[in-house]
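As described in the Methods, two query proteins were run sequentially through the folding procedure within a single session, without resetting any intermediate state between them. The first query and its resulting C-alpha cells are shown here.
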Amino acid sequence: MAAATHKERTLIAAIGDEDTVTGLLLAGIGDIDIHQRPNFLVVDAKTTQEQIEETFTAFTKRKDIAIILINQHVAEVIRGILDEYNAAFPTVLEIPSKDHPYDPSKDSVLKRVQLLFGD
C-alpha cells in the first residue's frame, strides 16, 4: 500500500525567488491541481513569513508532491519548521539562488546526514 502512495507523488514543488521559480517553471515543473493550487511560490520582499510557512505546510500535506525545492535564503526564514520536518516524502532540498550561494552549514538535511554518518 505504501508503494502505491509513492507512485502518486510525481511533482516537484518550488519555493524561491523569481529567477529560481521561473527557471524551474520553464523546465516544466509547473502544475495546478484540481483545487486550483499551484506547486510553486515566488518569494519577494512583500512575501510574509506566514505565507512561506503556509505554503510549505500545504506542500508537505499534498499527496502528489515528491520533492520540495526551496532556496536556502528562503529556508532560513522558516528554519524552525524545516528543522522539525522529518518525513521522507515529500523530500525537502535546499538550493542556492542567483544572489545567495549555497552554505552547507545551514542545510538541515545535510546536518542530519552528517549526524547519521558521524561526520
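Immediately afterward, the second query was submitted; its sequence and C-alpha cells are:
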Amino acid sequence: MSAPVYGQATKVDAQLSTVPALERSHPSRKLIPGILIVAGLTWIFAIQYGQSQVFDVSLPIDSPHYQRLKSHCADVPPISKDEYLTRQTDLAELLHALGGKAYVAEPGANTQFYANFSNASWRLSERPLLLMISPIASESPVGEIGAQPQVTILTPKYAEWAEEDNPYSVAVEALSAYVFSALASSHARGSEGGPIFLDDNVRKFIDDGLKHARPDAVQVLTAVPAIKAMRERKSAAEINILKCVNEATLLAVRGVHKHLYPGIRESQARSAVASVLGAAGLTNGGCLTLFGENAALPHGSGTDRTLAESDFALFDCTASLHGYWSDVTRTVSLGPSYLSARQREIWEHVHAAQRVALSVARNGTRTRLVDEEVRKTLKSQGYGQYFTHRLGHGIGLEVHEHPYLRGGNEQIIEIGHTFSNEPGIYIEGEVGVRLEDCFYIAADGRAVLLTEGVGGQARAPWLP
C-alpha cells in the first residue's frame, strides 16, 4: 500500500504490509484417552497434558494448527489517511501556539505517527533523511488565525541536494523558502524568531548540522514535552489495533503452551512462538523464553536448558500489527500436580498484584501511585524485595514508550493512555514469576485490559 504523507506535502512512499487475519476463537481442546485418573486436579491435567506432543515448528501455514488463528484481525484496518492528517494539523496548531518554525524528526516511531513512514522501511545512514512539519498560518472566515501543516521530506531525491552540498543548509533553506515567507505574509505571531524543535531521537550529528547551518537565523531546540505527549493518548483506531495484536499474541502463547513437554528446550519453545506469530500474520518482536531458575533473572537470556516437569516456563512475547506492538507475559506450568505449594503461592501473589494495579490505575491518578500500591501489596506478603523492576511502561508504536508506571513519576494518567501491567517475583537461583497484560484507560476513566476480548488475565499457571 502506498502511504503518502499528508497536508501540503512532498510525497514519499512507504510500504505498509497487509497483515493476514487471525481468528477470534480459543484453540480447541483435545481429549486424550487412556490416562489413569487419580484425583480431580490430576483429571484436569490429564485432559490437557497427559500425552505430551512435540511442537513441530516446521508446520506449513495452512496446517490446522494455524487455521484457527487466521481471521482474528481481518477486520482491523490500519490508521486512516484522515487520522494522519488530523495528527499533522494538531501538531501544526501546537507549533503555531509555541511560535515554532518546524518539528524535525528522523525515521522512527514519531515519523510513523505523523506520516506513516519509519525506519522499518527507511534505514538510517550517514545521509540525513528528515521529516519536517511546519505550521502555515491560515485565517478562518471569522478572522481567527490558525495553522495548517506543511510537510516536507528531506532526502537526496526529494529535496534534490547533491552529495557535495551541505544537507543541513538545504534543510534550513527549504524551511526558509516556504515557512518564513508564508508566516510573515499571514501575520503569524513570533514566526521569524521561533525555534525548530528536534525530535529527541535525532542523532547528534544531525542536531549539530542543523545548529551550525544558519546559527544567526535558526534556533534549534529539543522538542518540548507538549509535542512529545501527542503520541501518548491513543485514538479509538489505535486502541482497536492494540487490542487485536495483544489478543493474538496471547492466543499464540496459549497455543504453544499446549505443546510443551518435559525435555523441550528454551530455544525450541521460543521458535514455536515465533512460528505461530508469523503464521498469524504478525511481525515477531521476539519472545523471551526462560525455564525454571533462569526466569529469576527478569531480563536474562537463558541457557537453553530443558524443561523439567516441576518447572515454571516464562514467556515474554512481543509482536506488531500495522506498526503497533503487543507485550504479553505468561509464567506457565505443565499442570497443577507438578507444582509445589511455594510455587503456587508465588504465582498467586503476582496474579493478585496485577489486579491491584488495575484497580488503582484510573484517569487522574499519578502514575507512581500504581507502582507504589503494587509494591505495598507484595511487601505485605513478604515478597517486596523480590520485585526488582518498574511496574509498567506505555505501549504503542514502540514496545516501551512514555508514560511509565514507576516510582517517582508524577505524570497524571489520562483517558487514552496505554500501559503494560507486569509485576513479578524473582528469587535468584530458585524461581521467577512475571505476568503481563497491557491495558488502556477507557472513556469512563477505568483500566480495561487490551486482552479482555480473549479472556484477559491468566486463570492459573496451567490456564494462561
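The chain has two domains: 81-231, 233-454. We note this only descriptively and draw no conclusion about the first query from it.
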